[in-house]
Every structure is written in C-alpha cells, then in structure tokens.
Specification:
The chain is of the alpha/beta class. The chain has eleven helices and 14 strands. It binds adenosine-5'-triphosphate and magnesium ion.
Length: 317
C-alpha cells in the first residue's frame, strides 16, 4: 500500500533523511520510531505530498506522490505534528469545511461528519468552538478531520502527544480499530504504544532506517544471551560460585539494589532455570524470585539508535 524507495530530503546542504526504504502492507499499522530530529515528520510530510523529496520515490496505493499528488491526497488522511485547526470555528463547521476541501460529495457530507463525530467521541462537543476545547479534544478533532473522507491510508504524526493516560488509551483503541480497513503509519515517542498498537515497526536514526520488523523479531535478533534474574533469601559468597558452575551459565553478576539478587547469563538457547531451582532448593538458600529478563522495546530502541554496529541481519542470527 505504501512503498518508499531510496527516499532522500535535503535542507540546504544537509540531508534530513537519506536512502530510506520501507513498505507498509494494506491494513497494517506501522510504528514509525526514531529519536528527535531523526526525520519522521519529514518522511510523513513527503508521503502526504506536503513536501517534495530531493531524491528517490514513494508510492501510496499505487500512485506516485510526486507525479500523482491529487490521487494520493484523496486516499490519505494526515494528522500533522501540530494540527492546524481553525480555532474560531465550531467543531461541526470545521469538519464541514474539511469535507469541502477534501471533495466529499454534498449528499455524503452529513453522514461522514456524523460518523467521525461518533468514532472520535466528540459528539458532545460538536457545537463548541475549537479554541475552547482541551488539548485532548482538539487532538480528537484533528483525527476526525484526517478521517473525514474515509481515506485508505492514515499518516499520524504523534497522535497521542500531550494526552492524559485515559485519553491515550481511547485514542489507541480508536487507531487499532482502524486496522484492516485502513493502512496506518504512526509516529510516536511512547514506546509501549508501539507494542500495543502496531504490528510492525520501522526505526529510523539520523535519517536512515536502522530496523524494520516486528518487535518480537527485533528482540530476538538483538538478543545475544539468555538472562535470568534470581533472588535468594540467604545470600553468601557461595551462591554466585555455585550458580556459575551450572552448565551453560556464562556469568553471574550481583544486582546492587537487591541483596541476594543475581543476573545469571547463559548461552543463547540454554534454559538453566530448572538447574538453578534445584541447586537453590538443595542448598536451602530460599528462592524469592526467578524470572527471565526480556529486552524491552526501550532496550531495543536504545541499542539501535545509539550503537554503531546496527542490527545483525537475519542470516547471521
Ligand atoms: N524546514 C526545515 N529546514 C531545515 N531543516 C529542517 C527543516 N525541517 C526539519 N529539518 C531538519 O531535518 C531533520 C529531521 O527533522 P524531523 O522534523 O523530520 O524529525 P522528527 O523525527 O520528526 O523529530 P521529532 O521527534 O523531534 O518530531 C532535523 O535535523 C531537522 O532539524
Ligand atoms: Mg516530528
């Protein structure tokens, strides 16, 4: 549905993004991640025809964003970083205005407005002026405007920024409900949002794609060892020694903040839990806790955006 090939954008002498390649399948929700200044907004503005690229190509629903902008715009709903709402308009008159801009046929306008008011849960504020709405509600109006012409593709630039936790959950649910019928690219800084909402992620750093995969696959590929956190009640110098002698264990490191706590690292694929439990019981150390340590998306993100080596390819793992 969306295909980006060798896309590059130069501001002055500097490339904001360069050699970008990724694709989004129909009905998919793609998380678009990257640190500040990575080029997320720039990419999204190119895809929505607001900004010409310097090099490369991009297609949305089969149409070229540079040569067939009109066709692309018809099929795209865009929620920009700072939604340009007409503050002095009421919600309904603003949405009506957008239906005209987007070329929604006259006979369909009323239905479309009613549908997005309902879907974005802003029916109760429909007659209020936009400037009198809270930030969260203004964000919803922006989303309603993006959805008004029932576009196939939605490009959402940090849709939950500045919202309270309850509203974040509601907007997330709304975005999730769009999957299937709509194809969505969503940029965010809130990493748990991605694991909860998106099927796949593209991570960019300094204008380049550093990873494109499902979160689980990224986790797998970055994992170089198994890590287990173990905590015992009766600690002594014998504990780390004995744990280290278990077959497959590579290292045992104490956890400073937790007395009796250790991180037991073992070779990839080795499951030492049974043996750890057996020894702890046999020595009567008193097992308080034992849990595998998984890489969070934060870990994955930091690893990919701060380390130089990048991600190992599928073949190597
Ligand atoms: N109009 C502009 N003129 C010159 N440089 C720009 C312009 N817009 C963006 N840039 C630069 O391009 C790079 C990418 O910016 P962009 O806004 O796309 O990043 P982003 O990933 O959206 O960041 P954030 O997470 O802060 O929103 C940055 O280095 C930025 O300074
Ligand atoms: Mg941005």
């Amino acid at each position: 549905m969306i295909e980006v090939e060798n896309l590059g954008k130069k501001y002055g002498n500097n490339f904001a993004v360069r050699n970008l390649n990724f694709s989004v399948k129909k009905g998919e929700i793609l998380g678009f991640l990257g640190p500040n200044g990575a080029g997320k907004t720039t990419t999204m503005r190119i895809l929505t025809c607001y900004l010409p690229a310097t090099e490369g190509s991009a297609r949305v629903a089969g149409f070229d964003v540079f040569k067939e902008g009109l066709q692309v715009r018809k099929r795209i709903g865009y929620l920009p970083e700072n939604s340009p709402l007409y503050r002095e308009m009421s919600v309904t008159s603003f949405l009506d205005f957008i239906t005209r801009i987007k070329g929604v046929p006259r006979r369909k306008r009323k239905d479309r407005i009613a549908s997005v008011l309902d879907r974005c849960k802003i029916d109760e504020v429909k007659n209020r002026l936009i400037q009198h709405l809270s930030k969260g509600y203004r964000q919803r109006v922006g989303l309603a405007a993006a959805l008004i012409h029932d576009p196939e593709v939605l490009i959402l630039d940090e849709p939950t920024i500045g919202l309270d936790p309850k509203q974040i959950i509601e907007i997330r649910e709304l975005i999730k409900s769009l999957a299937g019928d709509h194809t969505v690219i969503l940029s965010t800084h809130i990493l748990p949002e991605v694991t909860q909402t998106c099927q796949r992620v593209v991570i960019i750093n300094e204008g380049k794609v550093v990873a494109e995969d499902t979160f689980e696959k990224l986790q797998e590929r970055l994992r170089k060892a198994e890590r287990l956190s173990v905590r015992v009640k009766r600690d002594s110098s014998i504990v780390p020694q004995k744990l280290a002698s278990i077959g497959g264990v590579v290292s045992v490191a104490p956890i400073d903040a937790a007395p009796g706590g250790y991180i037991v690292e073992s070779t990839l694929g080795a499951d030492v839990r049974e043996e750890v439990a057996r020894i702890v019981a046999q020595e009567n150390w008193g097992l308080l806790e034992m849990k595998p340590m998984v890489m969070s998306l934060e870990d994955v993100f930091l690893k990919l955006t701060t380390e130089e080596e990048g991600i190992p390819s599928n073949q190597e793992s």
